[in-house]
Amino acid sequence: MRGEAMRSLLIVLLVGIAAASSACAGETLEQGPPPAWVRPIEAVSPIAGDDDDVAAFRVELMDQQVRLEGGVNQTYVRTQWRVLSPQALPMLGSVVIPWNPANQTVTIHGLRIFRGDRVIDALEDREFTILRREQNLEAAMLNGVLTATLQLDDLRVGDVLELEATTRSENAVLGRHAEILATANLPAPISHYHLRASWPRGEHFRIRATDGWDTPAVRRSGGDDGIEIVLKDLEPLLVPDDAPTRFHHVRQLEVTDYGAWSDVADVFLPLYARASELEAGSPIYARAAEIREATDDPRARAEAALRLVQDANSTCGSTLRRVCMCLPRPPPSCSSAAISRRSCRPCSDWPRRRNATPTCARLGPA
Question: Which helix (H) or strand (E) holds 122?
């Protein structure tokens, strides 16, 4: 198994299937019991195994349970990996948990090693190290994602490593909207796969599965609606590495309360409209007047506006909470004039878009 595929596998299993944005969450991992809404499933015996398995490791259990309520996504994940060869030790021996402290909190419920009939608490006398890696720093992009790492120095072939954790996410921009993307196609065999998602009765969610997975029916239980999938002995669905990205979406399930892409646009269009308003005296007015007087050609005006916002302004993309909380607007202390002087750093390429929209608007009809 290639190293990159194994890294992707661990990220999927450790973080779960939720993503979003909230008021400040936490820059450290929390520890505690699972949420009350989690339904424990029968544990897979960590003693049984298949010595003839040719993979470096096997996922004995992948249990994902999601609660969608009031715009908050909570994702509980419990996974068990069986070490089948020394090749898996470097990867499984390094527990990696990335999360965004502006968006999420992560609570660890347990990290255990099953060795024969022994159960070893892997968190005893060990602590996670918190890193801020910023892997796109060279591209002038900051996201604030933190990575918790823990090295297991006594993991052995034949051991079963179990991680149990919950990620809580809340998106201040999307409000009460919620969605998840689950996958059961990993670059390793899965002995027991379980997915459960629930939400309050009366809320409407659209569910769609990709190739290799049947769409489950919504069922009611108490005051909730939800879906549940239980699968056994899953083998990876192999897709050529050089195949277009759309062919890699196999054995995936989408759950969303959006009815169409127009619903997404309805959320963001007002934000962009408000963010495009300029203060009186903004230097963009003068630059737009210069372009308008230089040529009557709409195409030449558009090209000049693009050169202004793309070539004449340096930007640093940032989704850090203390900068902008992912809203398409500059920080409250930053004006359009300040942006044009390169003195503050809004989200991603937003300074370009924010300057481009009012600039083009003031050049007249295209």
Answer: none
CA dist 47 and 117 (Å) reads 7
- Give the pLDDT of residue 146: 87
Q: Which long-range CB contacts under 8 A does 221-226 form with residues at least 24 apart?
A: 224/198, 224/199, 224/200, 225/198, 225/199, 225/200, 225/201, 226/196, 226/197, 226/198, 226/199
DSSP state of 187: S
Share of the chain above pLDDT 90, in %: 26
pTM: 0.76
Looking at the chain, which residues constitute the CATH 2.60.40.3140 domain(s)?
Answer: 3-259
Q: Which CATH class is domain 3-259?
A: mainly beta
Token output for 14 = 């450790």
Q: 143 burial class (0-12, 13-18, 19+ CB within 10 angstroms)? A: buried
Sign of CA dihedral 248, 318, 324, 15: positive
